[in-house]
Amino acid sequence: MKKLFLVLIIALALVACAAPTATPAPTATPVPPTAAPPTAVPTRVPPTATAVPPTAVPPAPTTAPTAPPTATQPKEVTATLTWLGHPTFILKTSSGLTALLDPTATTMGYTLTPIGGVDLVTVSHEHADHNNVALATGSPTILRGLAGNDWAKIDQTIKGVRVRTVATYHDDTQGSARGKNAVFVFDLDGLRIVHLGDLGHKLSDDQVKQIGAVDVAMIPVGGFFTVDGKGAAEVIGQLKPKIAIPMHYTTPVLVASTAARLTDAGPFGAAFGASAKVTQTAQTITISSLKLPTELTVMVMSYK
Description:
Elements: H1 2-18, E1 78-85, E2 88-93, E3 98-101, E4 120-123, E5 141-144, E6 146-147, E7 150-151, E8 155-158, E9 161-169, E10 180-188, E11 191-195, H2 205-211, E12 216-220, H3 229-239, E13 243-247, H4 256-259, H5 266-270, E14 277-281, E15 284-288, E16 297-301
Parallel strand pairs: 3-4, 4-5, 11-12, 12-13, 13-16, 14-16
Antiparallel strand pairs: 1-2, 1-15, 2-3, 6-7, 8-9, 9-10, 10-11
């Protein structure tokens, strides 16, 4: 029995010697479990705008800078006046009109000869020293301010000049002493000229309004038959013309019977004092709408 046990031990030992020694497996260092990376939330990246160069605004059409509007130069209108003495004038306008105003009688002392080329004759009233229409030769248009015992209503255009009348009186008693008188207004394009005939009174507000703004006024100043120098100055103050031309006053050649009753132009000019410029002029003057005086100017014209 012992023999059998011994043999078993020897056999086991031999087996043990023959078997290869197993190399112990390397001990792996425990690695802590790596946390799974968090699920990446996709970052919303705004789409990258493709850089497009800014579209240039098309330039405005190139034009020359607009010049500020220039004021239209007023048209020049001219009138030429020639004094023949007493109330009588020849008016010539740049529109081509030739008018004879209140032609006086040849017996009044002034040298008068027949006048040709006249388009128009105006008569403020029917007294002999104002209605000598035969002084104009040919066949001019004749406009008489009175029709019988009443005023004529005149408003017409001749050769570019509007001619109209305003009713007035020859005295300061509404015509009871010397009757009626017509003021003639000549409206040029940019120039207004007024012939006051034998005006005998200050104007009413309505008459001033009817006449309108005046540039040139021919006014009687000798008194007796008409307003005198002071009264004429008052009328000029009402009308406010740029130029005042005295007429119907005494001169060295005026017939004695009339001259004795009239004054000269002196009191008229003196009535303005320093408020007007008084000048002596030739028999003929030319007036321009663009060159009117800035202050009232009294022009005492020569009759020759």
